[in-house]
Write the structure tokens for this entry.
Amino acid sequence: MTLQWKRENIIFDSLCEADVWADSLGNEMYARLYDGYDTPDYKIAYSLAFRLAEMKEFRVFTKRTIGNDYRYKVWLVPS
């Protein structure tokens, strides 16, 4: 299975800002516009993972990649 990823380089100053952003991302992922999100901001990944975990239709996965910089990935698959 090939996942459709959305990758952005946005970093927010506060968890509140990141949570508002993650709310809109959750809606897009629920609508199946893409399956995963890749970001350098742990606050977005944290908020998005918790928002998606509330939806019983999906299983949520997370991963932190280490390279030249940290990247955080959140993706889902149907249950």
Notes: Strands lie at 5-7, 36-39, 58-66, 70-78. The chain is about 35% helix and 30% strand.
